[in-house]
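Re: How this chain folds, sequence and tokenised backbone to follow

Filed under: protein folding, tokenised backbone structure, sequence and structure records.

Contents: The amino acid chain and a row of whole-number tokens, matched residue for residue.

Body of memo: The sequence and its backbone structure tokens, given next.
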Amino acid sequence: MDIWDVVWTVSGAGLILLMLVDVFHTLLYPHGSGPVCRTIMHGSWRLSRLSRKGTSSIAAPMAMAAVIVAWAAMAVLGWALLYLPHLPEGFIYGAGVPREADFLEAVYISMVTLSTLGFGEVVAGHPLLRLVSAAQAVTGFGLLTATVSWILQMYPALNRRRALAHQLNLFREAATPGDPFAIDAGHAAGLLESLATNIASVSIDLLTFHETYYFQEVDQRGSLPATVAYAQELASGARASDNSELQFAGRMLEAALDDLARVLRGRFGHAGTTSSEVFEHYSTHHRHRRPGRADTD
């Protein structure tokens, strides 16, 4: 091997390692996301905010697709760089197949192996290369199933957040104006405790499925940033009640809201020293703000 062969091999191994680390932190580690995924998701979100309309609602799905493409690209290029120093001597070519030794040939072999197609026209001949290509095929199959699982996990978490927003809207529409607790106190306390439980689930979803934060709702009824302030009003009203059950439910709801605010502040950088300020910043960033408020960063 000459110096360039060493460079290609080290570079390829580095790309493969980066891809594996990013996939691990994004899909397997319960409270994190990889550097590539985080950069793409956050960058896409920032770019979508430069556009005043039309792109924010599709920014997150497009960013997820970009992350998957980035993982596949790193895998293809990484293994191609591992194969490149061994072309063509380290591979067995079928009859009539030209023996090439350039980068495009290495990329072709890598893509065929990663996709587990295995045309058989070019196969690894050296025992070590055979193990490397087999490892790539296994990685390709695992990457495919993992990304499908990742996509399927996102939408239940999004649906839980939308359901919470709808629940808050329904409560507001059904409640007596000026007195949302003009019903049996025990029943009202149960409703507030249900809200607290659902808010806690959303907080966990944001920690576990970091990418769901970047999904912006088109319909305001399904938008938590647009409705979370009403949950604070309910918590304050319940805490000021003379009924002990309502007071307890109000404290429980307020605690759940404070936990959500801590997640938004600590994980997503929302400004504010109080939960109300954090939620106001959250609402502004997701374009659901009170009339007369400016859209500022």
